[in-house]
Design brief:
The chain is built from six helices and nine strands; from the N terminus they run H-H-E-H-E-H-E-E-H-E-E-E-H-E-E. It is an alpha/beta fold and 225 residues long. It has a single domain, classed as Rossmann fold (3-Layer(aba) Sandwich), CATH 3.40.50. The strands form two sheets. The protein has a seven-stranded mixed β-sheet. Strands 6-7 form a two-stranded antiparallel sheet. The chain is globular, with a radius of gyration of 19 Å. The C terminus is likely disordered. The structure holds S-adenosylmethionine (SAM). S-adenosylmethionine (SAM) binds next to loops.
Length: 225
Amino acid sequence: MKTLKQHWLDRYQGAATEKLSWFQSQPQPSLNWIRANATLNSAVIDIGAGASVLVDHLLEENYTDISLLDLAGAALQISRQRLGLKAERVIWLTADITQWQPSRTYSLWHDRAVFHFLTSVEDREAYKRALLAGLEIGGTLIMATFALGGPQKCSGLPIVQYDAEKLQAELGDQFELLESLQEQHPTPTGNSQLFNWCLFRRIYSRVKSPNRACPTDKPMPILHI
Ligand SMILES: C[S@@+](CC[C@H](N)C(=O)[O-])C[C@H]1O[C@@H](n2cnc3c(N)ncnc32)[C@H](O)[C@@H]1O
């Protein structure tokens, strides 16, 4: 059986970038939300960036701290070649997000059509561990998945559909939903895919343990001096 990595390598090696179902020539609403929530010096990471042209636009606008992560090195290679010398202004990370341990933090985390592939609880928990380790408190999370009622598969793989409420429940109380919208993405073959887009702010957990000093059911020990 093919590995997940091989699946994605085959997709990128088997067709031109503009023919892939998820291709966007104008990466919106990503760009507008990034402009509104990140300064030109903010650390921005695109998870599962693939060969997306979002990076071209960010470089054009003079963002200075851009990282791209993808499981498929061949996808990143397409962007590297397209960018030429400008590729040196980007940090390239070939990794599986469910196994990745960030070595620094970011102020904006962008994920278009990656989290929705995680159909097991274990993989989603692993992704969230990376997210909490990599996104600073006060940072911005932009996440796009297929919407409820949208396609059930993406690139031939099963996915989980979300609306804003379901994604909020999945991410937990460290994320505050600021905005959400639905988008009909026109694919290169003339179909349409319903996406759910969410903009979150990472916050301190709103739920405080009622028994912070004594987290078990046992009574507080009495110290005899
Ligand atoms: C549907 S494509 C979206 C690409 C890009 N975000 C865009 O909007 O054009 C999904 C991307 O996620 C990558 N991917 C899938 N599973 C991944 C994982 N576990 N870790 C990192 N990248 C992954 C794939 O290689 C692919 O480039």
